[in-house]
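Example (one chain per record):
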Amino acid sequence: MSLTDGVDPTADPTTGPDGVAVPDIAVRRALGRRPADFLFSAWPLRCWLNLLGGALFGLGLLLALVVLVSVGILLSVVGVGLLLLACLPLLGIPVARVERRRLRLVQPLRPADPHTPAPEEGLRRRVRHRLRHRLAERATWRELGYAALLAVVFTGAGLGVVALLAFSCVLVATPVVVWALAPETVMIIPGQAVPDPLSAVPFSLAGLAGVALSAYAAAWLTVGQVWTAWILLAPRKDPENRRVIELTRSRARLADAFEAERRRIERDLHDGAQQQLVALTMTLGLAELEMREADPKAAALVARGRGEARRALDQLRDLVRGIHPQVLTDHGLAAAVAEVAQRSPIPVEAAIDLPRRLPPLVEATAYFTVTEALANAAKHSGASRIGITGTLVDDRLTLLITDDGRGGADPAAGTGLSGLADRLAILRGRLLVSSPVGGPTQLRVEVPCSA
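Predicted structure:
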C-alpha cells in the first residue's frame, strides 16, 4: 500500500497560527475514514517506524544540546562559550532540514524551507553575515523550538509508545514462550506461574489489545508531530510578506486598469477619429473631381489637403497599431510578433512556438517588450540580423531576443532596458541581459503565465 492510497493529503487544508496553511494530515484522514480498517493497513507500521526513528534522532539531539550547553557554560569565562551559546539556535536549522525529509514517511507533502537567501559576498564576510542573517530570522528560532520539542516531548512520548508495542508483542508471544521453555517456570505476573500454553492465551489477547492501543497512540502522536512541524517549520506570511503580496496585487490591478484604458483609447480612435478621417478623405476626393475642370488651382489645393488627410490617417493607423495591434487580439503573440518583425528595418527571424493562447496581459507585455527590444536594436546595436524565439515550459513564457550587433548594452545608459524590466516586474517576470562589448546581445524574457 502506498502512502496516498485512499488519502488525499492536500484536501481541506486548515489554517494554523499566523496564517500558516496546514494541509490535511494523511494519518488523521486514514483514521477518520474507518478506524477499524486502520489496524490492517500499512499506517501503523509507518507510524511506529516514524516514532522509533524520531526517538533515536531525538535522543542524539538531546545529548548534543546537553553537551553544547554544558560546554558553553563552562567556557563562558574565557569568551568562547558565549560564542558557542550564541550560535546554539543555529542547531535547529539542520534538525528542521532532517525532519522535513523524515516526515515524508507519514506525510506526502512536506513544509518548504522558510529561510530567505543570505547575502553573497566574500568568504569571511559571507560567513559573518550569514550567521547574523540566520539569527535575525524568526524561522531560525521556531526551528530551535521544534528541536527542543522533538528532543524532550516527542522523544519521550515516542519511546513510551515503542515500549508499549514491545511489551505487547511479548505478551502476544507468551504461549510460544511457555511452550518453548517448558518444563521451566514462566511468570508474567510476579508470583503466578503460567503452567501451560493454553493458560497463556489471555495474555496473548491482552497483548493484541496493547498492539492495537499502541497503533492508535502512535497514529495520534504522529498527527500531533506533523501538525507541529507544519506550524513551526513551514514559511509564514508575516506582515512584511503580506505587504509585498498586496503591493504586487496592486501593481497587477494597476496594469489591468492601464491595459483596459489603452484598449478604450484604441477603440475610440479606431471607431471615431479614424473613420472621420476616412470620410474626410473621400469627401475631398469627390470635391477634387468636381473642381478639376472648373477651378484647377482650387482642385490642386483640395488634392493637397486630401494627401495631408491621408498621411494623417496613416499616422493614426500606426498609432492605433502601436497602442494594441488587432492581430494580437485576434491571433495571439506569435502572429503579432511575426507582423512587427516584417516592419523592422533589420531582418528578423521569429520562431515562437506556443501550444495555446496566453493571458491577455501576458501577451500584451511580451509583445511590447519585443517591439521595444527591436526598436532599441535598430537605434543602438548596428546589427544586421535579429533572432526571436519563444517557448512555453511549465506555464512560464520564455523569449530570447538575440542580435549580432556591437553589444555593450547597459540598462543604466538610457536604452530602455530598465523600463522593460519594470514592465515585466509587474507580472513577476524578469529580464536577463547579456551584452558583452563586441556582441552579440541577448535579452532573455521570462514571464509566469499562472494567476
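Caption: DSSP finds 15 helices and nine strands in the chain.
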